[in-house]
Amino acid sequence: MRRSWLLFSQAVTVLLAVYFVVVSLKPQWLESSRLGSVTVIEAPTGGAAKMAGGAPGSLSTAAKAASGAVVSIIASKAAARTPNTEDPWFRFFFGDQVRNETQVGLGSGVIVSPNGYILTNNHVIEGADEIEVILIDARKAKAKVIGTDPETDLAILKIELDKLPVIVLGSSELIEIGDQVLAIGNPFGVGQTVTSGIISALGRSQLGINVFENFIQTDAAINPGNSGGALVDTQGRLLGINTAIYSRSGGSMGIGFAIPVSTARQVLESIVRDGQVTRGWIGVEPQELNAELAQTFNISAKSGVIITGVLQNGPAAAAGIRPGDVITAVANKPVSNVSELLSAVAALKPGVSSPLKVQRRDASLEVAVTPSKRQRPALPRQ
């Protein structure tokens, strides 16, 4: 019995000695045993740990979802040559006055189809002899112009590459003033850049940029080179194509404009299907309704668009529209200004009868008009 007790006491003494040595020299061994199977994720050295999906308030999810589908566009145009350029006597007397340098323009675009269709601005590629598209993964491809629509300043390109990242189209009809957005593009050719802001206004028109204007206004920084890039929501879904800025310096002043994705989708589908954009036309000269015109034509309407001229033998004349009539709705869609009337009539299908609501003095009428195909006029006449 005594021998057993002696062995026990010696064993306890050794264990205590080992414990004190471990506590003094290797305390982390004891911490590891306490943690057991729990996995500990430590913050990287020099910064806080980044949570999945980004830090609170981060828009990284939207940026990652959309940035792969936003491309840089290099549009090249050969310099104009004159008959005297290669004349040695001309060059002897007048010098080399004409430089045969290629003009290069920079812009952005958005891949909207696995087939390689790209939305961009018409002014980005207008007049270009060669167009190169550069993806965010550094792949490059020559682009073919499928079609353009100068009246909305949109163009459709196509590239032949496999496994293309494609942006998800959102709904520009559901956005509201104050919604957060990101603008993604290639400003000044520095490389893909993401800026953030909010929707500042909707339905901006009469800016003198396009014939058909219904812009989304944002304070997200848009600079030269951003044209044709993507305006996306917080999920990375496409809301618009960045097009123009208001600026006194050439840089961003917090007032940028984007073409709504609803307009871009219509142009894309029409060009891919028909090779061109087909719009309706009824042959009227519209003006904004004001008190002076209302008194001149003796009308009581408070809203709508007044018609000051009707083209003879045009669709509107055939339907009985007269000067002084106020159009208040097109195909059951209310119109309150010239821009809305232009867009509503343009959306009509040529050759298909559509109803127009008209205020004629004190009477309310509904007439059926069969629009013709709109040509591209120098002036915004409908």
Let me know the largest β-sheet.
Answer: 7 strands, antiparallel
Which bin fits the share of residues in helices? 10-25%
- Tally of DSSP helical segments: 9
For the secondary structure, the number of strands is: 21
CATH superfamily of the domain at 180-274: Trypsin-like serine proteases
What fold name stands as the CATH topology of the domain at 180-274?
Thrombin, subunit H
Shape: elongated
Structural class: alpha+beta
Q: End-to-end span in angstroms?
A: 115 Å
Taking Cα atoms only, what radius of gyration do you get, to the nearest Å?
A: 33 Å
Name given to the CATH architecture of the domain at 180-274? Beta Barrel
Spatial strand sequence of the major β-sheet: 5-4-1-2-3-7-6
The fraction of residues in strands falls at 25-35%
Low-confidence stretches: 27-52, 378-382
State mean pLDDT (0 to 100 scale).
79
CATH class group of the domain at 180-274: Mainly Beta
Order of helices and strands: HHHEHEEHEEEEEEEEEEHEEHEHEEHEEE
